[in-house]
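Task: complex structure prediction.
Instruction: return structure tokens for all chains below.
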Amino acid sequence: MKKTTVSWTVLLGVCFVMAMSFPAWGAKTIKIGVIGPMNFVQGKGHWNGAVMAMEKINARGGIQVGNKKMKIKLVKADSNEFLNVMDATNAMELILTRDKVDFIVGGFRSEAVLAMQDIAMDYKKIFIGCGAAHPKLCLRVAGDYKRYKYFFRGTPFNSRYLVKTCFIQMATVGAILKKVLNIPKVKVAIVAEKAMWVDPMIKAAQGFIPKMGMEVVGTWRPSAVATDVTAELSAVQRTGAHMIFTTFSSSVGIPFARQAGELEVPAVQVGINVEAQKDGFWKATQGMGNYVMTLNTYCRDVEANVLTKPFVETYIKRFGEVPTYTADTYAAIVYNLAPAIEQAGTLDADKLIPIMETREYLSPGGTVGYLKDAEGRHLHDLKWGPGYLTSLGVQWQDGKLKGVWPNRWKASKDAPAITYKGIVPYKIPPWVIKKYKK
Amino acid sequence: MILDIIISGLISGSIYALLAIGFSLIFGVARIINIAHTAFYMVASYCIYFGTHKLGLHPIWGMMAAVILVTLFGLICYKLFIDPIREHEAAVLIGTIAMAIAMQEIMLLIFTGDYLSVPSLIGGYLKIFDVKVFYQQVLTFGMALLILAALWALLMKTRLGLAIRSTAEDREVANLMGMNESRVAMITMGISVGLAALTGAVIVPLTTLSPFMWMHPLIMMMAVVVLGGLGSIKGSFVGAYILGFAEAMVVFLAPMGAYLKGSVALSIMILVLLIRPEGLFGVAFEEER
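Output:
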């Protein structure tokens, strides 16, 4: 009798351990981990985009996986990556081991995403990066395909293309300055936060700006979290710069724009200022961020294709603000993961990868396709250019964020001019006009 | 460029001085290393934001309310968390770190990590020898000088100041002479936190609010205090301007390394300490004691 009781107890114990160890057994949901700095706008974007995707997919009954429909369940993971990369790696480890997610979307800082990427690769889980721009993330895929093939870039395109788009936008604004203000040679000050993703962009900018017929008058690298940049602004003013090429993804974008506006620094700001992409920028700069221009993915009233407007308007209705680019977790789930799973009929990452790396599809930001390197190796990096993703140039104009680029943009001499629906003309700040107009 | 460096240095030096003086005061009197000092400055900044943006108060009223509320909050924190462990310096150090992190997390919960700001008390700028300076910066500079003068008057010309100085000189003798040392420490804590809140009030229009905004000033404030000599108010004042000028010089002379301005300032502190381990005014302070 005693022996039977012991046997039953052992059996029950084994069953319990097995049930705890393999919670995915017989699961009817697809678990997607959403990882990002959840207390910050970037993480909120990750989460909101994923929530919209989940609601959309679950409303239609889920994703067809073979002969059964599986609904999506999201698992939120706060990477706290702005403050501590270790927190990000711990969060990644936790969603993979404790929550046993099937896929991961998100990540923001390149430094943190590189570390998180390794963990996701250890567990052979597909990780779609929706925030980090460093090329290394995808160069790793080509360099060691067997290990890194599970990583895909979801947004934004890599910093090489980011800087290329910025140069095009700089050239556009430079031409306007020359024409309106009769400036023979536009002087450019490069102001870039100290962060890993910016390093390749600065080298490119220093080399390419002179080729565009402009002059680089200096480069400043304030801390990404600097709260006072008046010294940098004074130094920029001393150089007589007409244009400031900004590359900010962190909080420094706010004091820079605010103080430059308040001091009426006679130079237009073009480039990347992630804080300026958000609805809260106007209030955060006390309205001093007027005329700041930045690269962006979405803008109210601007349509890159037929999917843009429904996405942006639903997002605004649901969350009360325009989506930032990290909200492209929506596109990563709805237009990338879900169709690939339905096509493969499985959640097996190794079977999904060949489909994901060859598919081309329309998303709210543009057409998504994945690149190969010069040797024909898969990079899982986003294609850029007309017909694919181009991003937008947006400018704060009297309290409203307006799309100003592409406006009759020709990618090459013979290419057709591109203007997205809802684009308005660029405006030069009045104090710049006052300073230079003869 | 020299003018730019002087003006930038004076302004950032004033900001550091405001913070470091309050920190020095409580250390000098009660031997309390209050790591949460800049966290009180952060809380005051959020109070001002809340008062001006959520309650619709005029910035001046918002600032006054913030200074009073944060001072009271500081006194409560002192009574509850610091006073019972005051005799154990290491425990105070760890306790105040915990307090600062708790304040940060509470602010993060309430206001999230979104970057916020409040309007300037006086908008616009003036030109000093062709260098543009915000009126708010001039105000901060003036406030730093005013606060220092007021503090000097308080310490040197009042009975309370006498009590504070004698407690700083020798706690036990002050006690034997009938002074309520514990009360003096509490009042000093109130003045110190009030100074942190006041710093928040004058600086907040120049900065960006985030729950982590207390960290960088803490490092710089500690550097200033160590450089000037622990507990020396005069040392804090001088140290603040040395580091302020060092930062400005880095930005203007090595623009590509502008992000290193904090590191350069800290290196200067280490260099000074190698030559003079007690800090710039450490000996004078000890002699005063």
